[in-house]
Amino acid sequence: MSLSAEYDPNNIFAKIVRGEMPSVKVFEDEIALAFMDIFPQSEGHTLVIPRKSKATNLLSADAAELGPLIERVQRVANGVVKALSPDGVRVMQINGAPAGQTVFHLHFHIIPVFEGTPLKRHAGERADPARLESLAAKIRAGIAAK
Ligand code: 5GP
């Protein structure tokens, strides 16, 4: 999908926002929703998406929505770090299919990095649902403790 493609209201993240598709949530408020990536690049890979935006990517987003959204990204990233104590954390955001974007609803990846454990490939291997639930429980507690 090109950088300037129209927003599809039936994309998978829009369905997650509307509750039409399940997700393992770790945070939600009126601005954003955060949930576990089901094809994680590392243990604790979390996605943060705007609830109301119709932006396919960062470039087409309304500038006014970005400040509140990035605050949620920071809050969730701090919660992930508190919960899982990674050695580093990658905050990633991809624009356009040629760059690797696969879901066309603006989102940020929070990818904990553990020294000595290579990241898995992007949108590759499906996680064990029970493992995602247990990581999510820790991350929810980490966010609440911040
Ligand atoms: P993108 O490639 O657009 O930057 O990132 C999309 C992310 O969404 C990928 O990391 C992929 O693993 C994840 N993903 C794709 N489909 C689903 C889904 O149905 N549920 C969840 N939780 N994550 C998904």
Care to describe what's here?
By secondary structure, the protein is α+β, with helices and mostly antiparallel strands. The protein has one domain: HIT-like (HIT family, subunit A, 2-Layer Sandwich). The protein has 3 helices and 5 strands. It has a 5-stranded antiparallel β-sheet with strand order 1-2-3-5-4. Strand 1 and strand 2 (32-36) form a beta hairpin. Helix 2 crosses helix 3 (129-145). The longest helix is centred in the middle third of the chain and has 22 residues, at 63-84. It is globular. It starts with 11 loop residues before the first helix and ends with a helix. The structure holds guanosine-5'-monophosphate. The site of guanosine-5'-monophosphate has 14 residues, from strand 2.
What is the CATH superfamily label? HIT-like
Helix content: 25-40%
SSE run: HEEEHEEH
What's the β-strand tally? 5
Tally of individual helices:
3
Going by CATH, the architecture would be 2-Layer Sandwich
Report the principal-axis shape.
globular
CATH class: Alpha Beta
- The CATH topology comes to HIT family, subunit A
In spatial order, strands of the major sheet run 1-2-3-5-4
The parts where pLDDT drops under 50 for at least 5 residues are: none
User: What is the radius of gyration?
Assistant: 14 Å
Strand content: 15-25%
Return the structural class: alpha+beta
Topology:
Elements: H1 12-18, E1 25-28, E2 32-36, E3 46-50, H2 63-84, E4 88-92, E5 108-113, H3 129-145
Helix pairs in contact: 2-3
